[in-house]
Structures are given as C-alpha cells and as structure tokens.
C-alpha cells in the first residue's frame, strides 16, 4: 500500500472511530462526507476558496456524492509533497461539481399576504405607519419555496426538505432558523398571514417527527444542535390568534417530543445548599469544527495539544451556536478572553430556563384545553419545580436580578445581559415584589443610558453578541417582560426602551433603506457589527419585533423622537435664524 492509500485508509478509520465516540461521547455534525465531516470538507474549507465557509456547504451537487467524492480521491492521491491538494485543481473540481448556493430555493409570494393589515390603522404616527407598511411588504421578499429536487434527491443538497414554503431571515441565511422564526411568526400573525405562519409551524413539527428535535437551521450540518426551544411558544401565538383545537391536538405529541429532547439531552443537576435542582443548559456533543465555519474553528483549536481539548472546544463552540448567542464573552471562562475560553456547557443560562418555564406553563394550559388532566398535572408540577430551581439557583438577592450560574466555579456571573431579565418575560417568578428590585437593578446599571436600546453586554470584545450591539429578540423580551408587570415604573421603562429601539431602526431604515439583523446602541442609527460575518440585512426577526412594538404602543410611539438626537445648539438654530430674519 503506497503512502497516499495508507493516509486515506487511516482517515476513513479515524472518522469511523470518531462516530463511535472512542475519544469520548462526541459525534460528527452529520454523516455526509461532503457537507459535514471528512477529508473533502477539510481540504475545501482549509483552501479558503470562498470568503465565507458557509458558501461551500450550501452548494448543491451536480452529480451523486459518490461520483464527486471519487473525483476528489483522485486529487488526493496526487496531492503535493506537503500533503495539500493542488488548490487550483480543487477549485476547478468545486466549480464544475457544485451549483451556487440558493439555487435549490425559489422566490415565493405568500398567497395570504395582505397589502394593508388591520393593525396598521391603529398606528397614530403617519411616518411610522408608512414605515410599517414597507416592513409588511418585506415578507414577500423573504418568502422561499424549496424545489422538488431537494425532496427527490436529498443526498445532493445540504438543505433539509420541508413541506411548506417559509420566510427566511435574509442575507447569507437562506434557510429557516429556529428561534428567529418565533418573531417572524408573531409578525406574520400580526400581518394577518396566518396560513404562512401555520405552514412554518408545521415545518418545525415535521423536523421534530423526523429528527426528534429541531435543528439550529434548515441544513443537515445543523442536525446535532438546536436553538432556544420556541416551538411551543410559536403554537401559543398561533392559538391566541386562531384558537384551532384540532390543529393543537394533532401537534401536541410533537410538542411533547421536543420538550423531552431538551429534558433528556440538555438537562443538568445543580447542587446548592444541600438541595439538588434540575435545570437546563446548551450542550452539543460534537467533536469537530462546525462545517459552516470550518476553517475558523479548525484554526482556533489548532494549537491545543490534545485531541480531547480540541473536541471539548469544538463542542462548546457548537453549544454557543445552539444558544443563538454566537459568540459572546457570556460563554467565556479563562485567561485569554478569546473564543479559546468558550465553555458554554458549564453555564446554566437564565434565558433558556425562562423559555422552558414558559413552555411548561403553556403545555399545562394546552393539555387542560385538550381535556387531558394527567398531562396537564405533569406540566403544572414541572413548572412548580422549575420556579423553585430558577429562584434558588439563578436569583441573586444582592443584585436583585437573575444571573447565569457557572457549574465549574459554582457561582453566578454578575455581568449584565438583557437575558438576566428574561424570567420577567416568561412570568417565571411568584413573588411580585421582585419587580421593584428588577427596576432598581436596571436603573443602577448603565443599560438604560444608551441612546438606541439595550446593549447585549458591557464588554466590547469584537464578538457580535457583545457591546455595542443590540439584538431585536433581546429588546423585545425585556420590553414585553416589563410591560406585562403591574408596575407603572416598569411599564414606563418598557415604553422608553421601545421608543429608543423603534427610533434607531427607523433612522437606519431611512438612511439605508434596509432592515438589519442587529443594531449599534450608540450613534445615530446604524447596523451592528463584529463576529464571524458581515451584518446581514433582510431581516426576519427585526421586522417582526418592530411590527409588534408598533402595535403594542401604536398611540404613543412617534418618529419625532428622532429630534432628541440633535444637539442643543442644533435645536436652537432654527430659532436663531428666525430672529435674524425678523
């Protein structure tokens, strides 16, 4: 056996051993030797043919995987003395064997799109109402339908077939994403597009039926990791609008199945003051680089000295992606203050447990509505246990707020994140006196001092889920949480935050004629930055959040708040000119 053949055999054996978890309970992102794991993926991504690694793994195959892989093997056997495959020949192979990303999707106009939904008439400010009309039109530009060949030839695509058309986030995100879709669906329902909203929920139910969970996004390289579990809450939004018990009865077994996935695969026991509490965390037992960010992950771990250390880092990087916060110093725990310090699996996150708290409350109600008292009782008890655990482990009496808990160091993370207030949004508390403490916490922090909304953290790390970026879902959860309290002070803070966010988004829209996935909380209304890729426009959840805020505060929000961004001399300028003219 020549050296080339030996190397290929060794690599194949290594992949098999990895799948069997010889070096720990780690798996590959998926089994595809093109899109998820193996030598082909490694050589293409490390050749950096494309600026964005996601580009390659989103490309469809022009022939069968076996035939294309055979062509690659011929290149592998003729590789250079350095061990690298000839880059130009590799580029030629990719360009002749793959189609451009997105060609497996086609533009789709939702048939239930309504030019002028009823809620628009309630928006008092004429400029904001006109803007809302434009945002409502964006649903058409984000509509996609998966082509039939993805269903009939699934091995040629990384895209996962789903039966119904969908609304995508936008930009490089050509497929559905899990937690993004919660705010998209809420926006669709508000826009009276309930048929489209239901179709997207049915797609997620299809995923649970097929995989036992909902992947991070609609690609096979995402199937080992999920995202914040919003499916039951999507159904909650739909039921509040449509009250369709027949659909709920059909869906409830799959809602339960997804909940069980989180409890069976993402739970963790925390011992505190002699008691054990069951809570949840993000955890992805995948010991390889993320295919869509392969070269970045591989290079990040390259200098680690052991295979185990590399696998642990890959796993925690994937877990941070599962959280939706990819990436943030929130997950760091080490001395380098870089992604090398990512230890997501050691964090018991406030927001994940708040979401599951609301899921348990909602499932208890659903089972009661369906006249299934035993299951309703099960989830009432689960909710009761969650409330106790959240308060015991995550509530910090000194700061007067919930905080992430680190299981490695057995202490809470005192840093500010908007997620610290997520139990308020989830109604995951029983003592209503804590609302005043939460208001005090917000006022004492710097969080309310920023011009354009709540920062994701106070650390300017260069990661996108840190300062100075503000993210739509976090703004909405905090605003909705404060608004639903009976505290006038909390409700006034909620309105002021909504006005800031609407103003910054409106100002950026007027300047760029676009909506963005994130925004800078400083300055005069501009998109956010940092992280692994350029800021994306579209943008599904940004549209959904703004439409909900415009509806919530329709009689109070005004575009005239933009004037507050002018300096005092600038405000005086028109008065001075009038005086001179007189």
Characterise the protein shown here.
This protein is mainly α and 582 residues long. The protein has a domain at 3-97. Helices cover 49% and strands 6% of the residues. The chain contains 21 helices and 12 strands. A 3-stranded antiparallel β-sheet has the order 1-2-3. It has a 3-stranded antiparallel β-sheet with strand order 6-9-10. Strands 4-5 form a two-stranded antiparallel ribbon. Strand 4 (267-272) and strand 5 form a beta hairpin. Helix 18 packs parallel to helix 20. The longest helix has 25 residues, at 488-512. The model is unreliable at 1-23 and 562-582 (pLDDT under 50).
Oligomer state of the chains in this structure: single chain
Approximate helicity band = 40-55%
Main sheet record: 3 strands, antiparallel
How are the strands of the biggest sheet laid out side by side? 1-2-3
Per DSSP, what share of the residues sits in E-state strands of 2 or more residues? 5-15%
Structural class: mainly alpha
Low-confidence segments, given as residue ranges, are 1-23, 562-582
Based on CA inertia axes, which overall geometry fits? globular
Please tell me the overall pLDDT: 92
């Amino acid at each position: 056996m020549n050296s080339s053949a030996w190397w290929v055999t060794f690599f194949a054996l290594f992949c098999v051993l990895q799948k069997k978890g010889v070096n720990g309970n780690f798996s590959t992102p998926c089994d595809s030797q093109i899109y998820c794991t193996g030598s082909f993926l490694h050589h293409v991504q490390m050749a950096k043919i494309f600026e964005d690694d996601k580009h390659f793994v989103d490309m469809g195959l022009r022939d069968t995987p076996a035939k294309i892989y055979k062509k690659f093997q011929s290149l592998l056997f003729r590789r250079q003395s350095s061990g690298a495959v000839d880059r130009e020949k590799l580029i030629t192979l990719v360009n002749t064997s793959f189609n451009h990303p997105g060609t497996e999707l086609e533009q789709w106009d939702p048939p239930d799109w309504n030019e002028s939904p009823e809620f628009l008439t309630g928006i008092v400010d004429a400029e904001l109402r006109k803007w809302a009309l434009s945002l409502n039109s964006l649903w058409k530009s984000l509509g996609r339908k998966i082509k039939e060949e993805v269903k009939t030839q699934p091995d040629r695509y990384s895209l996962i077939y789903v039966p119904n058309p969908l609304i995508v986030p936008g930009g490089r995100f050509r497929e559905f994403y899990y937690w993004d879709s919660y705010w998209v669906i809420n926006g669709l329902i508000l826009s009276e597009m309930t048929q489209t909203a239901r179709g997207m929920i049915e797609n997620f139910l299809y995923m649970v039926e097929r995989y036992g969970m909902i992947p991070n996004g609609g690609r096979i390289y995402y199937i080992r990791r999920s995202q914040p579990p919003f499916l039951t809450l999507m159904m909650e939004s739909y039921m509040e609008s449509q009250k369709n018990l027949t659909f709920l009865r059909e869906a409830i077994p799959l809602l339960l199945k997804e909940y069980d996935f989180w409890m069976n695969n993402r739970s963790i026991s925390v011992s505190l003051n002699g008691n054990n509490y069951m809570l949840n965390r993000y955890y992805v037992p995948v010991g390889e680089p993320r295919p869509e960010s392969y070269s970045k992950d591989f290079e990040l771990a390259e200098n680690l000295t052991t295979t185990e250390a590399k696998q642990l880092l890959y796993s925690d990087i994937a877990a941070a992606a599962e959280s939706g916060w990819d990436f943030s110093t929130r997950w760091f725990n080490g001395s380098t203050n870089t992604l090398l310090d990512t230890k997501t699996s050691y964090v018991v996150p406030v927001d994940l447990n708040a979401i599951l708290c609301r899921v348990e409350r909602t499932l208890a109600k659903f089972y009661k509505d369906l006249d299934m008292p035993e299951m309703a009782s099960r989830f009432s008890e689960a909710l009761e246990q969650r409330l106790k655990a959240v308060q015991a482990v995550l509530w910090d009496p000194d700061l007067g707020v919930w905080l992430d808990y680190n299981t490695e160091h057995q202490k809470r993370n005192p840093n500010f994140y908007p997620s610290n207030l997520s139990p308020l949004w989830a109604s995951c508390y029983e003592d209503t006196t804590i609302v005043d403490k939460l208001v005090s916490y917000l006022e004492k922090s710097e969080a309310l001092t920023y011009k354009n909304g709540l920062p994701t953290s106070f650390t300017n790390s260069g990661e996108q889920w840190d300062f100075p970026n503000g993210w739509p879902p976090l703004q909405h959860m905090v605003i909705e949480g404060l608004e639903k309290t009976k505290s006038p002070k909390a409700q006034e803070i909620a309105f002021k935050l909504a006005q800031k966010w609407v103003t910054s988004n409106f100002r950026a829209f007027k300047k760029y004629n676009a909506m963005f996935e994130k925004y800078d909380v400083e300055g005069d209304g501009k998109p956010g930055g940092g992280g692994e890729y350029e800021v994306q426009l579209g943008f599904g959840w940004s549209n959904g959040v703004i439409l909900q805020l415009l509806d919530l505060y329709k009689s109070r929000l005004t575009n005239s708040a933009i004037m507050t961004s002018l300096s005092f001399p600038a405000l005086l300028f028109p008065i001075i000119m009038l005086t001179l003219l007189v």
